[in-house]
C-alpha cells in the first residue's frame, strides 16, 4: 500500500525508476520527502573562474549487494562476498527507494534548479509545506496499517 496523493503537490518530483524530474501535478499518488546534508553528496571544489564552491559527485558512494547463496565446500560453509557497485548520490537514493517500494520522492538538489534564484526563492517557502504534507500522509498510512493489523 502506497501513500495517497496529498492536496499539496510540489512543483517537481523525482520518479524513482528512472530518476527523472517530473511535474508534481502529473503524479497520481503520494510522495516522500528527503532531508539530508549536501556534504554527503560529493566533493567540494572551487570554481577557478567565479571563486564559488560547488559539489561534484564522482560516483564514490558504495552499495553492497549481498548474495543469498552460500557455498558449501567439504562440510565448511563459506559466504560469498557481496557485489559492490559505486554510484553517485542519486544512485544511492534510488536503491533505497526501490527497496522500500517508493515511487516518487522530493529532494531539493534535484527538484529545485539551484542556478535559478527565482525558483529557489519560491520553492524555499514551499519546502515547509512539502515536509508537513508528507508527514501527514505517512501518519495517515500508519493509522490504516495499524487498523488492518488490529482487525487480523
Automatic annotation (TrEMBL):
<keyword id="KW-1133">Transmembrane helix</keyword>
<protein>
    <recommendedName>
        <fullName>Heterokaryon incompatibility domain-containing protein</fullName>
    </recommendedName>
</protein>
<feature type="domain" description="Heterokaryon incompatibility">
    <location>
        <begin position="31"/>
        <end position="123"/>
    </location>
</feature>
<dbReference type="InterPro" id="IPR010730">
    <property type="entry name" value="HET"/>
</dbReference>
<dbReference type="Pfam" id="PF06985">
    <property type="entry name" value="HET"/>
</dbReference>
<keyword id="KW-0472">Membrane</keyword>
<feature type="transmembrane region" description="Helical">
    <location>
        <begin position="125"/>
        <end position="146"/>
    </location>
</feature>
<keyword id="KW-0812">Transmembrane</keyword>
